[in-house]
Amino acid sequence: MNQQRPNSSRTLQVIEAALLLLASIFFILHAFHLNADFPNHSPWMDWAKYTDEGWYGDGAIRHFQRGYWYVPGDFNPAAALPVWPLLEAALFRFTGVNLVAARALTVAIFGLILATSYLLLRRWQNLSNPDLDNRNNKTTLAPAIAVLLLAVSPFCYAFTRLAILEPLLVLFTLLALLVASYVTPGQGIAIPIRASLGQIAPILALGLILPLMVLTKTTAVFLLPAIAWILWARAGYRLRPFLHVGIPVVALAAVIWLAYYGFIVRPHFLDDYRYLFSANGYTGVTPSTALSVLGDTIADGLWIGNILYPLGLLAAASALFLRPRLLRNPLIPALLLWAAGYAAFLAYHNNLQPRYYLVIAIPLTLLIPVVFSSLWEPFTIRPGNSVRNPLRGLAGASITVVLTVLIVADARQTLHYVRNPDYTFTSAAAQIHQIVAADRRHNPLILSISGSNLSLMTGLPSICDDFGTMDLAVRVQAYHPGWYVAWNQVDDDKMDALTPMYHLQRVAAFPAMDDPERNLLILYRLDPAIPGTPPRHRRKPIIPRLLQTNFGQQPSQIQLEH
After folding, report:
1. Whole-structure pTM value
2. Torsion of CA 321, 324, 329, 330, to 10 degrees
3. For 227-234, what is the mean pLDDT?
């Protein structure tokens, strides 16, 4: 038996290398056709593909295109969520503002997600399988299988190629779990004065990652219990060591977040900070809708994958009810808390967009190989147990077949998206840019719900027609846009805001994307409502000088207060 172990280990290493090579190939495919549409006619009808890449990167986009990042009265989410636009700004300094660069950044983040997932599962590799002799078995296929499942997933392919917030939030969460796994109970308050940097580094790193998570996307607070569980496990499930570890982490994270809020948000951007929450407060669960919302939240998880999602739920149920010994591995309860915590947010918020499920897809995918690994990995035969359990062998074979079918089916769908890109949105944006640039009489400022996306793709300045701290009519009077871009039709409230000042002249229409409610991009020229009044043409955006705030300014230099 001892002679078989080296051979078995070498076989596993070869299989692992093959799985990681295949995962690497599919990851590289994510970098192809970065300016293509979000896959048209996919199962995921998410409006983020029309707006979010521009909205949440607007701080960086405007900083380089206009010279200032803040547009008073418009939608300015960077005030509350500064991490993503700061990362984009660092990239745009070298690449310039463009859609390919922004999406390349999120693809790189997905690559870090794959690497961190591998390291995290490797960190806890054999604790999920009590039958393995952890001293002699150093190789397990669980990390490589998890990476491959993520790399071939068409759901991950679609949403990790959008320059949105969710991939970065996932990466920070994985990093927090990995860093927390290196914290030891002797650290924290009890750290000696002469402690080495290696001893205190996990505390400092975790105290930094937590506020970065919240400043990336505020819903990160629903993921904190998963990180706390890893710290609880590292403290030996004892209160005093846990407090010794947890208090310094929480204190450092609180100081960083409060410093940002107290010195930047509260004195200068409090209205924009509050508006981000009020703008998302139109949905929510009520006692009368609680059961239906909960059912929809669970059922809509099928967006993750018709096989992957049920398999992930089966893995969760197996760990909780069929094999509770698996919960001895701290990573499994942490992944369960991660998925359950964010699912609770989705149900509470009751705005079930497919992109939100990316944050749930990652922990469920990682659970599958961790929970089921004991069914296909070699295991040490205990004394008195000289034969394998045939039911166990049948279960292992069944899981192996299901995983094979899942990987093949997902890989095929992802390859279909790679081989059949569409460019309807970027093509429409380019034609809009040509029309606007050729007109020297009208202000190039565009009013549109997709205006920030158009700015990212074309460089044209824009303001939003839907969100903003100013009423739309007031914003229109303040900024005098020269063009209006609508999807399919002009809504009544938009028409009411525009008609006192403008006559909408339809100039062109471009088929784009696949949503029946948003598949025709219409360009209107905004002519003065009073004949003979010349249009207010200004080649530079109309922002008073005292309102022009830059990334590089100190808070004391910002002269506008809200």
Report:
1. 0.89
2. 60
3. 95
